[in-house]
Specification:
128 residues, mainly alpha
Length: 128
């Protein structure tokens, strides 16, 4: 059973990376790019919707939200783009884990922007 879970986790990583590659492909429609970007950013983000320190619930987003998001985003991408992206992702994963410092910077900037917006909202509510 543990081996099956490991295989599923590896497949999810490859699918997520394929989604990232499909996002960058110009043949992907704009709405699929938006969904793919959000899913990939959340999947690779160090910040979770529910922190992992919360027993049981902390891992629910990793077990439910990410696979559902990946599945939804993959359905929006044309088959030819998906086929090419999966092949490229499998090759890259065989060579070693992909690392993108630019993607990490973008994710951190998105979370900082969201945090700034939340602080602005709280300040506005407190002043009212």
């Amino acid at each position: 059973m543990l081996e099956r879970w490991k295989a599923q986790a590896a497949r999810l990583k490859t699918e997520t990376y394929a989604l990232y590659l499909a996002y960058r492909d110009p043949r992907t429609p704009w709405f699929a790019r938006v969904v793919a970007a959000l899913v990939v950013a959340y999947a690779f983000s160090p910040i979770d919707l529910i922190p992992d320190v919360i027993p049981v619930l902390g891992y629910m987003d990793d077990l439910i939200v990410i696979p559902l998001g990946v599945t939804f985003a993959l359905r929006l991408i044309p088959d030819s783009v998906l086929r090419d992206s999966r092949a490229q992702a499998q090759e890259i994963m065989r060579q070693g884990r992909p690392v993108s410092r630019a993607a990490a910077v973008v994710i951190v900037l998105i979370w900082l922007l969201l945090a700034a917006m939340a602080v602005a909202l709280v300040v506005r509510v407190v002043r009212s």
